[in-house]
Structures are given as C-alpha cells and as structure tokens.
Amino acid sequence: MADKSNGEELTPAPVEELVSLSSWQVPAASVRRTLREALTTFAGHFREPFQDGASTFEVESDIESLSPYQLRRFAPDPDRQCRAEALAEALDRRRGEGRKAAEGMSFIVTPPYSGVAESLTLIAEQRQWRVISPPDNLLLSEAEAEAWWDEQALSDGCWVIPELARFWLRHRSGLALLTALFGRLAAMAQVPALIGCSSWCWSFWVRYLPCQSLYPLTLPATTSAKLEVWLASLPGRRQASSLRVRQTNNGHWVLAGDVDTEANGFKRSGLLRDLAAMARGNPGVALALWRKSLRARPDECLSEDEQSDELTAVQPGERKCWVIPLDQLTLPLVPAGASREVTGVLHTLLLHGDLDEPGLKLALSLRETNLRLALQHLARHELIECSDERWQVTALAYPSVRRTLQGSGYPVDGF
C-alpha cells in the first residue's frame, strides 16, 4: 500500500486476515523466559535479569533512552488510514472474492489497544456508513432500551458500532441496552453491519447471556515474525527494512535490516519471540514495550533542534538503534497486596475500556473519597492514565494488571 505523497510507503498494519475467535492462540515464549517468569512471579519482582553467560561482546554502557523526537522516527504511531484499509481488505476477503463488506454482519472481538474501534470508525467514514453512538444516559429500563434501539432503525442501510463497551455500565440499571441489542442481533445475521467489541466486554456478556448465537471474528495474534516486519516498517520509508536494531547486552541482532547475519556470523536475538509472548500477541502492548526498550547513543540520531524536518533526516541505511533485554525493563507493576477496591477499579476499567469518575462510582458503588484515593494510587504507580476526563489502564501496565486480576480470581478475557 503506497502513500500518494513524498514517495513514501505507508506503514503496514499487522492485519493479514480475520480468524474465528475460537481459533486464536497466544504466541509461545522461549523456555528460558517461561522459567524466569515463573520464578520472578513467585519471588514477587521482575527487576533482576538473568545473565546470558560468557560473551565477547562489549556491553554498551553509554546508551540512553530515546528522546520523543527519536521515538517518532524509530517507533511512531501506526498509520491510522493504512490500518483501517488493511482491516477493510481483511473483511472483504473474509466475505469472499468479489463480495462487498455490506453483505452481512461482522462481529469483531479484540483485546485492548488493538486499534480496531478507530479503524471501524474510519471504514464507516470511507464507505459512508452510519456510525451508531451510545446515548448519554446508559441507565435505562428494558422498555426504554427497546425504544432506543427502535429509533436506530438497524434494518435500514449499513451501520457501524465501533465499540460495544461504550453501550453499557456494570450496574443493575446499566445492562438493558446491550441485553436488548444481543436479543436483536440473533435475528440480524444478514444485516449489513460492523460491530467492534473489546475482549473484556465480550467475556462479561458471554457469561451474562451464555446462549449467544454470534460467531465473532478476531485478529490473529501478532507473532515474532509479524513483529519483525511490522516494527521495521514503522518508520514509514521505502527502505524501512534497513532499520537495524541490536541487543545492548550481547550485540545479537533483533532487526538486522539488510545485514546478512548468517553470512557474517552474527547471532540473531530471540527478543521478538519473547516480546510477542509478553504482549500475548497484542500489537498495541508490544509497541509500548518496544518503545520502552529502545536505546540510542547521543550521536546516533540528530536532535530535534538540529533536524526540524523529519523528511530530510538521516538516511535509512544509517538508521540504527539498540534495545535492552526485556528482563531489564522497569515496568508498572500492581503493588503486592493491592486492596479489592484497587483491583476492582482496574477490572472495571478493562470491562468498559475507559470510564469517567461518575461512571466508575456507579459501576463500583464506591464512595467518592475512596474512589479518588484508589485512582490516585493507581495513577501514581503508572497503572492508569486519564485522557479527556476518562480513565484507562496503560498499555505498559496491561501485562501486570491482567496477571494480577487473574491471580486474584477475577474473570479475565481470553486473550
């Protein structure tokens, strides 16, 4: 897929196909990393790295974290338009050669940070489909919910719901809207529609309404092979494959670019395999971890003051940076012995994707003072962040949050 401006290629999205939800599998980690995670989980910390043994490689000691400018060059946000086009093409292929996406309903379940809701919104804009947004008030009676859906005229034309998690609240009066919708969807298989649903929202509703007749699709897990292509392409240049990344502690190649590692006797790192497993195949989490682990010498990239125009920056063949082992990452961790109020906030945020404070107060039945204390505690540990007055779990904290919730007995998603 090529951009029409500046002769650059757009960033490919890690979307080659859509698969049934039941066929999704988490990428496997290396045996070494699996053993280490078991030991460090038992010990209650993730800070102490394993030693890799003897190596003739001189460990790099003067490597710094990337500046915001360098991050925009080496690991920018994925191209939104390209990602939406890739998803649209995957939907069209799923429906058969020569058929249009408007021929039936597609229900897509994906984990947080996958970017599918944004892509569905862009697809709706491109194809001039109607986007259905939730009402301001989610606390409706059954009759009010049915009347609201009647007003949406779901049988008329093509429509999109980017994220179902916005249509409910875990409250005795906040379930009616989706209960009514799921009842209607059972008889609407041929209605032209696209519906996105977060994996945590879906995990709640398949328990609440176990007799679902929907057969969701999802994106396949992002494996190490996909990460190698995708991360190398993120800078968005014609020669993106020339991006070179080596591991700081042993010099092994993570992204070799155009270097023939076998011919030159260089070793390849297993970091991307462990990154895919650590992120559980989630590209958004993998990208956040990748950005956190990237390093560069001060003289390897021009500063923002020295280079105001990114298009005339260092040539692709000169692009190189480093990455620290994942064991050395300092990531947000849920504090040991976190209270039920704290873990309840985390679980509720994942169920709904994001929530404002009034919504959290209703869903958790917490006093305002207790809720604010819990939010401050979580924000201080960089487990959650606030944008447009809505709180959400951070991508960097997601592996720890999911692991903690599962260990504390909360129902978790299937991803």
Automatic annotation (TrEMBL):
This is Uncharacterized protein. The lineage of its organism: Bacteria, Pseudomonadati, Pseudomonadota, Gammaproteobacteria, Pseudomonadales.
